[in-house]
Write a structure and sequence with these properties.
This protein is an alpha/beta fold. It contains 17 helices and 21 strands. Helix 12 links the parallel strand 9 and strand 10. It is elongated.
């Protein structure tokens, strides 16, 4: 440490005369005085006495005239401390401000604030710390009914880990590292979380979760469009426990309505928009117990075809015109169990399942002479969106194909993004607006089969459908919400380096070879907690091929296995006949009128209330009903 020494010399009286006269006498010489020393020591930042740096000042008498102030000679110690730094010069931030992550963050914050101001019709001039809450409250209230159209996208089984992995895979498919990529809905203005549990279950199913989203009421596992007072499988408990859905309110309000699913259109998620059932499995009459049929309960396919008359019978004084667009799979539930009714792409000897002899596709056509019934890509492509008033598309005997396997469909079928665009162009012919629900049901099925590849490629296509909706609607009048009904036991694990193939084996940071687990075998980034387990099916693109094989849970030697192939299925820890749902929260993403209401952690049932508020569905439905 550098010492700075200052000496003050006490001058001796040297016999200087007091005056310049020549009549005085010289004085005697005095003795030398002693030295007083002051020593200054610079202190570094962090010193106990001067945390922000400073100077320690020691003073005392140099009794031994050594010219150095010893510790025993110090009489006084003082400190002059530097003040704390309260400002940062812009030059000191150059490392930050010139960084692309920093710049992007600044831009996003600025854009987000502006989005909030515009969404709430406020300006910075109106807002102070005291007035902000009341201004925001008034502004938010003014948003009621601001959405002419509502589109609800449901990625079935699309948990947070699925979104993350699909985002990376899409980026890597575009030649990027992947992690920096954004799916279409990642870019939406507002987001939050939804708690997915059912009233009677910690880990939910799609029937209870979708009922919550569509009706605003949480309910039990396995029941559709009814509240928790229902007893699953008991037809007699349905009456009086039916719930009104957002789609039904939109119908009553005079809006056009549509349903899209890559699963069977009678499956739990799409069914919850229009049906009331004591059991999600009652997709057609052959699935129902005789007691339920005798008691008067109606199967889900029947409820779709006769939605209009059944809604009018259930709610007095309403006059609706029925669902305008229905796209999905599940033809077997609408056709009689008779080979003569098989469609051109039937894969079963007898496509239909119905045991009551009814052809519901013919009944639908009889109900709507202006409607178009289609079963394949050719029929879909031939639709004129400006003149088509109503369309019923059943593109597969059961579920539609996985996106990766779609080209293998016998008669061809549209993608979910194609169906979304077509539906919007038909529905927006109504000046009163529309309500559309779009489900990517096969994300869920890919996970159940233990195939990350199929689940993620369907998620990527689902994101394309969201982008299609963004491109074909006006953000000023269309609320778009993207969410999931539940997640899966799907994990992203290990410590793979940036850009490592998301479907590949873990390669650690700084390494070029796969990392080894404690059993001296490589392992993949993606995996499942339970399920059928490992498959190495090469270029197979149909995840459901796994169900013809025995369970192969547990560790496998992946040294010579290409885990990025389309037919690879990840390892699973717990052996089960099918991988299961998970119970964690799922994401909600939103843009458009009233989208700012999507924030924080919410009960899943809140989604209904946001849609109802944004489009003011209840008020409009009541007004329409009173006019009948």
């Amino acid at each position: 440490m550098k010492n700075l020494k200052l000496s003050l010399i006490a001058l001796a009286v040297m016999g200087l005369s007091a005056c310049d006269g020549d009549d005085g006498t010289n004085g005697t010489d005095g003795s030398n005085g002693v030295n007083s020393l002051i020593v200054q020591t610079a202190l570094a930042a962090g010193d106990a006495n001067c945390p922000n740096s400073g100077v320690q000042i020691d003073s005392g008498i140099d009794a031994d005239s050594s010219g150095t102030l010893e510790s025993s000679e110090i009489d006084s110690t003082e400190y002059v401390c530097s003040p704390g730094v309260t400002t940062v010069d812009s030059s000191e931030l150059l490392t930050n401000v010139n960084n692309e992550w920093f710049v992007e963050g600044q831009e996003e914050v600025t854009a987000a604030r502006q989005t909030w101001l515009e969404a709430t019709n406020t300006t910075s001039a109106k807002i102070t710390a005291d007035t902000a809450p009341s201004v925001a409250a008034k502004s938010i209230a003014s948003l009621r009914g601001s959405a002419k159209n509502v589109i609800l996208f449901v990625g079935d089984g699309m948990g947070i880990s699925t979104v993350t992995a699909a985002r990376i895979l899409e980026g890597q498919m575009k030649g990027e590292l992947g992690e920096e990529n954004q799916l279409s809905f990642d870019k939406m203005d507002f987001s939050g979380l939804a708690k997915t549990y059912n009233v009677d279950a910690q880990t939910p199913d799609s029937a209870g979760t979708m009922t919550a989203m569509m009706s605003g009421v949480k309910t039990d596992v396995g029941v559709i469009g009814v509240d928790e007072d229902i007893e699953r499988g008991d037809c007699s408990t349905v009456a009086g426990n039916e719930l009104v859905t957002a789609l039904e309110l939109a119908e009553i309000a005079g809006k056009s309505t549509g349903i899209i699913s890559t699963a069977r259109i009678t499956h739990a998620t799409p069914a919850a928009t229009y049906a009331k059932s004591a059991d999600r499995n009652w997709e057609d009459v052959s699935d129902m117990p005789e007691a339920a049929v005798t008691a008067g309960c109606v199967d889900i396919a029947d409820q779709l075809v006769n939605f209009e008359s059944m809604l009018e019978a259930r709610i007095s004084a309403v006059d609706v015109d029925g669902i305008e667009v229905a796209f999905g799979g599940g033809r077997r539930h609408f056709l009689p169990k008779d080979a003569s009714f098989n469609s051109t792409d039937a894969v079963s000897a007898v496509e239909g399942d119905r045991t009551d002899g009814r052809d519901l596709t013919a009944e639908w056509q009889a109900n709507y002479s202006n409607g178009v019934y289609i079963t394949d890509q050719s029929g879909f492509d031939g639709l004129n969106t400006e003149t088509t008033e109503r369309v019923f598309g059943l593109f597969n005997e059961s579920h539609m194909q996985y996106e990766a396997d779609r080209e293998n469909d016998v008669a061809g079928e549209p993608s979910v993004s194609e169906m979304t665009e077509k539906a919007i162009k038909i529905l927006d012919n109504n000046d009163e607006g529309f309500f559309l629900m779009v489900e990517s049901g096969r994300i869920d099925h890919g996970h159940h089969a233990g195939s990350a590849y199929n689940a993620l490629t369907d998620t990527i296509e689902f994101a394309q459908a969201v982008q299609s909706a963004i491109d074909n609607t006006d953000p000023e009048d269309t609320l778009i919400i993207v969410t999931a009904d539940h997640g899966h036991v799907f994990t992203i694990a290990g410590y793979p380096k940036r850009g490592n193939p998301i479907l590949g084996k873990v390669v650690n940071v700084g390494a070029d070879e796969p990392a080894m687990a404690a059993d001296d075998m490589p392992y993949t980034t993606l995996g499942y907690t339970n399920g059928l387990g490992f498959r190495n099916l090469g270029d197979e693109t149909d995840a459901d091929a796994t169900y013809s094989l025995e369970v192969a849970a547990g560790r496998q030697d992946l040294t010579d296995v290409d885990t990025t192939s389309t037919g690879y299925h990840q390892e699973a820890l717990v052996p089960l006949s099918s991988e299961t749902h998970s119970g964690e929260d799922v994401g909600i993403y939103a843009s458009g009128p009233a989208a700012l209401l999507v924030n924080g952690t919410n009960e899943q049932s809140l989604l209904y209330h946001i849609m109802d508020f944004a489009a003011d569905l209840t008020t409009q439905a009541n007004a329409a009903q009173s006019q009948e």
